[in-house]
Amino acid sequence: MVREMAKEMDKEFITRGVRRCSTPRFLLWLAPWVAMLLFGAYSAGLCLVKGLNQTNMDNRYAFGLWIFVDLTIIALGAGAFFTGFLLYILKFKELRAVINSAVVIGLVCYSGAMAALMVDVGQPLRAWFTFWYPNVHSMLTEVTFCISCYLTVLLIEYLPIVLKNRKLRDIPSFLVFEFEMHKLIYVLAGVGTFLSFFHQGSLGGLYGVLRGRPFAFREGFFVWPSTFFLFIISAAAVGPSFLIFTTWIVEKITGKRLVKDRVFTLLARISGILLSVYVLAKTVDTLIWINRTSPALGFTASQYYDWKPFGTWILFVEIVLCGLVPALILLTPRLRSRRAWLIPAAALACCGVALNRYVQTVQTLALPTLSFDKFLSYTPSWQEVGTFLGVLAYGVLVYSFSFRYFQIFPQERELRNEVRPQHEEEPVLAGRF
Amino acid sequence: MLPWNYGFHFGAATYIFMGAFYTVLLVVSITVLNALWRTRRGLREGKVEDIRWHSDFHDLSAADRSCRHVLTGEFASRECPHAFDCRECKTHAKLIAVHPPVHAAVSPDADEAELFGMSFPLDRMYHRGHTWARPEADGTMTVGLDDLGARLLGTPDSVELPEPGSRVQVSGTAFRLHKREADVRVLSPVDGEVVETGGVDRGFYLRVKPLSGTIDMRHLLCDSEVKPWLMRELERLQLALSMEGASVPSLADGGVPVSDIAAAYPRTNWDAVCGEMFLEP
Fold first, then answer.
1. Structural domain count of chain B
2. Is the sign of the CA dihedral A186, A330, A252, A30 positive or negative?
3. pLDDT profile of chain B (281 residues), mean per 10
4. Which residue segments constitute the domains of chain A, with CATH numbers given?
5. Which of A122, A169, B100, B155 lies deepest, with the highest CB count within 10 Å?
């Protein structure tokens, strides 16, 4: 009797008509992630209380694992703003099937990045200084403002998803607020797009303006270096790919079909088009950098790749293997319609953007720029790794709760007993490409 | 960047950046405040039930939102743009003017019309949430559960009826029924004030007095529309049962639904089946 009660403890909160595992099984799934989160909290606590001497970063190697993780997850979380833009502004109605998932992923990515940044910057009690006494000469100021604003927008966008919970919508004020908020969501989608464009760009611009770091320095347009634009395009390109990848992972873990194949295909097509634009732009940028920007600063490009392990292979992997190859797969209708091609392509695209952010942060700082400089190596301390794992666990936990109690995939119910078709027609809306 | 900040000076970049930043803050704040203000207004004006239905309607699958004129074959496909409130629909008005529903081709006796082995008398009009409304001689309307709805729930475990004097509105909650794990919100077919409550044994659940003296029933199904709608509902029931993993045995001609369908499927998630059939996703 007690066992039966425990099994169905939270049943009233679960969306009608969808199947979820029993409460004890869900708790079992959560247990390792909660343990990881606690470990992360302890690691972060050590860094906050004792200071950054708990990390392996120093004045010379000021960007480490955290900044790499921040930049990567903010790029991957771009699916939230880009899907919102496509759905609410450009009216790609097919994407309604994944918009809630995109919002949750965006929220997790941005709040996780903010948490890691808080630990990195330190002095959390003085966090408000950033807004009250901003450094007028720092691009980081724009990044901080934009990310804070966009996180607020994401929280507001997440609210209707929470309030649509079966039990919560029984409360009249929640029901009405969710309904009214949903009617205005296109405004937030527009604001989110505006903010995302700018902070993705500013994050790239941060490195592009480093004149003292010829490896990262880029010329550009007006005050914006080329990395400003490359970061925007790459984030918009991999956002849909990350959405494909995470949806596939959730499908595999839960053993359920969650979205129609045509939605995957549409996301793949959008990602493929943007990724090919990015690869083209990145190639042109790299050629200009090799032939003009870097020599003008006194370095031949080959000098950067003399330091192992950062050989030219890294350039090949970033642009060809994790850029051109997935772009071609995602652009080929016959290949993208098959999961065996689609998922590795989406994963490769995500790895590509992660590698790009790694190169921008870690490789940039490792390379010597002055004659007396040495090649630096850096291994994150366990406290840094712990904090990163904490952010990861936080993301999994928020997504797990959201998936269990909120309607993350509206097509889940109608797809429950449907057999996957061998070939499904591509959505008509995608015809605009 | 801020006037109280050290090194602050006005410049084009300051104006652009601060302008953009404060515009964003302003837009977000106005949006949230607007939503809160609309919420307050909605609650004050008693729009909760209307909003609940519109929200539910939005979540129905496209097939379940189909226009009544799709059922009768006048359209190949069309989603209802008015949440089943045909009183607002100009297309419906035009179509009804050209092809009014034919009265009772199904049975010579309009009061005892039998459709697919179930009783669907044609002296009343049907809501797509499986309720009916029948005009009475004293100007009131009786509201009840149609035969398919009644068979879906069998004998309910409990019934929650509104107090006499309370108001109901079209597609708002008329009453609630509980059967096993199913908690069913039954939709009202009419607007009005509840003057009397009935129950399972009395053949009706509510007696409703129209607020404006007359009741507009253009949104309800009647006469020749009932049969094709019911046919679609039986298909939906089969689909809902199969989605819940229940095998759906039927005779070659489809057979007749048993009087207590819930009892025939003791292991099926009846909450999900009822949610599907009573339009509460």
1. 2
2. negative
3. 68 78 90 96 93 92 89 88 90 85 55 79 92 91 93 91 93 92 91 90 89 82 89 89 74 72 87 91 82
4. 22-414+423-432 (1.20.1630.10)
5. A169
